[in-house]
Design a protein that fits this description.
With 210 residues, the chain is α/β, with parallel strands linked by helices. It has a single domain, classed as Rossmann fold (3-Layer(aba) Sandwich), CATH 3.40.50. The protein is 56% helix and 11% strand. Strands 2-3-1-4-5 form a five-stranded parallel sheet, sandwiched between helices. Helix 1 crosses helix 9, helix 2 (46-56) packs antiparallel against helix 3 and helix 4 packs across helix 8 (165-181). The two termini are 20 Å apart.
């Protein structure tokens, strides 16, 4: 019988490098002989992919509570894959989870934390709510803006990337509080990609003895 795997989430606002760090972590674990499953939200199954198209389409006006429900529906499907991977001994690595909804739909759009938590707890399993390790990345405002500009992330029809500066600042500023409230490790993502990767892998080596 396989030993159950661990789940690691790397969170943060756009421009913090969370997707890059998640991909590097997958490679690092695989080099150590650890099987991995890289999950993506909100995508990864045929239905979740369709829901992602709706979520990302900024031309479709809707209430932020609708986004909460759309994200939750996608997560239900994705969590089934994650559970199968964990049960088989694989480590699940992902760049987002429901903390994004606390930041974007909560602090960004005004949906209450109580509502977000209630809906998420109603439909998502405990392993999803409480991963083995949650890391939240942050960078100073000017660094984040420069990185986003350099990468060309501000797509005019993207639901969230096209929102105004005040929305983006509310979301970015929320992550520090979210990290404190949700037992996540807050890391400064200002150093180079390699330096940050080294910090993350050192944390994992220490915590999981790998």
């Amino acid at each position: 019988m396989s030993t159950r795997g661990h789940s690691i989430v790397i969170e943060g606002h756009d421009g913090t490098g969370k997707s890059t760090q998640a991909a590097l972590l997958v490679k690092w674990l695989q080099n150590k002989g650890i099987q991995t499953f890289e999950a993506h939200e909100p995508a990864g199954t045929p239905l979740a992919d369709k829901l992602r198209e709706i979520i990302k389409d900024g031309t479709l006006e809707r209430d932020p509570h609708t986004d909460l429900l759309l994200f939750t529906a996608a997560r239900i499907e994705i969590a089934k894959q994650e559970e199968a991977a964990l049960a088989s001994g694989k480590w699940v690595i992902k760049a987002r989870n429901w903390l994004s909804t606390l930041a974007y739909q909560g602090s960004g759009s005004g949906v209450s934390t109580t509502t977000i938590e209630s809906v998420t707890k109603q439909f998502l399993p405990n392993f999803y709510l409480h991963p083995s390790l949650q890391i939240v990345l942050y960078v100073p405002q000017e660094v984040r803006r420069a990185r986003i500009s350099l990468r060309g992330l501000n797509e005019p029809n993207d639901t969230f990337e096209s929102k105004d500066v005040m929305f983006q600042e509310r979301v970015a500023n929320a992550y520090e509080t979210i990290a404190q409230d949700r037992n996540a490790l807050l890391l400064d993502a200002s150093p180079s990609i390699d330096e940050l990767h080294a910090t993350i892998t050192h944390i994992i080596e220490t915590q999981f003895n790998v």
